[in-house]
Amino acid sequence: MAESLKSLRRRVRSIKSTKQITRAMEMVSAAKLRRAQSALLAARPYIQNLEIMLGRLAPAAQSSGHPLFAQRNVKRSTIVLFTADRGLCGSYNANLIRIAETHLKQDTHQRTELICVGKRGFEYFSRRAWPIAAEFTDMGGVLNSETAAKISTFITDRFLEGKTDEVHLLYTNFISAANCKPTFEKFLSLDYDALSQKVDPADRASMDYIFEPSEQGIFEQLIPAYLFAKLYIVLAEGFTSEHSSRMLAMNNATKSCDEMISTLTLSLNKARQSSITNDLLDIVGGAEALQKGS
């Protein structure tokens, strides 16, 4: 019984220690979530207005023959997978990896390559020997415009060099702290119709724009700016979703610790009570034996 009491006390101490860790991680994630959410909400209007601007110029872009609008026969494709560098964030990474696997299994000839943004996705697919064109890791869940520019440039160059014919993004879209949705969407080539849908129907009437210095000059500046902004917002969505998922996971872990501590404390009290009762019975039994002996 003494060993049982000792074991229960040790387990209670261990779980209390774990609870302190999960509670601290929850608070850190909550602070990171607030910062990431502020950055995300500040960036969303910029990308939305860029999409509207490109949507209004879509007819001119179509006639300009810009290579990033070129629709090719798809022989090679790329999925850019955005996962976290670390775990302990619930099903955040698992959901993205599962969706990526679903798409990859449809490609029996392995003509689809991966670009892994985040260590978890890279480690998972590198163990399975799937073609990985590049990996961008150790970002620490911190939004960085340099990283977005680097990823955007790498993808664009790969598309223009003909190493891939289409690019899709797989990331988590942040809706609310309790609702984050995995999203699979086309990145390249750019789609005139999809961009046109971003424009209000009342503004879709064709307009005769005057381009200065030239159409080509405008699109050479506008399209890279849009692609960079798109990658930046995707990173922001992903980091915000990651911190939200980790905060909720640690909150659930803390609640589980509380429940386990409660259950073990009850067991500990019962064991202690049983031990005391047995000791009292031994004392009473010994006293009665002494009385009979005298």
Give the helices and strands, then pairings.
Layout: H1 2-56, H2 58-64, E1 77-82, H3 92-105, E2 112-117, H4 119-127, E3 132-136, H5 145-160, E4 166-176, E5 179-188, H6 192-196, H7 215-293
Kindly describe this structure.
By secondary structure, this protein is an alpha/beta fold. It has a single domain (26-249), classed as Pyruvate Kinase, Chain: A, domain 1 (3-Layer(aba) Sandwich), CATH 3.40.1380.10. Helix content is 63%, strand content 13%. It is built from seven helices and five strands, in the order ααβαβαβαββαα. It has helices at residues 2-56, 58-64, 92-105, 119-127, 145-160, 192-196, 215-293, and strands spanning 77-82, 112-117, 132-136, 166-176, 179-188. A five-stranded mixed beta sheet has the order 3-2-1-4-5, with helices on both faces. Strand 2, helix 4 and strand 3 form a beta-alpha-beta unit. The mean pLDDT is 86.
Provide the number of structural domains.
1
Q: Tell me the strand order in the biggest sheet.
A: 3-2-1-4-5
The biggest beta sheet, please?
Answer: 5 strands, mixed
Query: H/E element string?
Result: HHEHEHEHEEHH
| Structural class computed from helices and strand pairing | alpha/beta
CATH superfamily: ATP synthase, F1 complex, gamma subunit
Instruction: Provide the gyration radius in Å.
Output: 29 Å
Architecture (CATH level 2) name: 3-Layer(aba) Sandwich
Mean pLDDT value: 86
Percent of residues in beta strands?
A: 5-15%
CATH fold title: Pyruvate Kinase, Chain: A, domain 1
Per the principal axes of the C-alpha atoms, what is the gross shape?
elongated
The tally of strands reads 5
List unreliable stretches of 5+ residues: none
Task: Provide a count of the helices.
Answer: 7
Helix residue percentage:
55-70%
How many angstroms does the end-to-end distance come to? 32 Å
Which CATH class? Alpha Beta
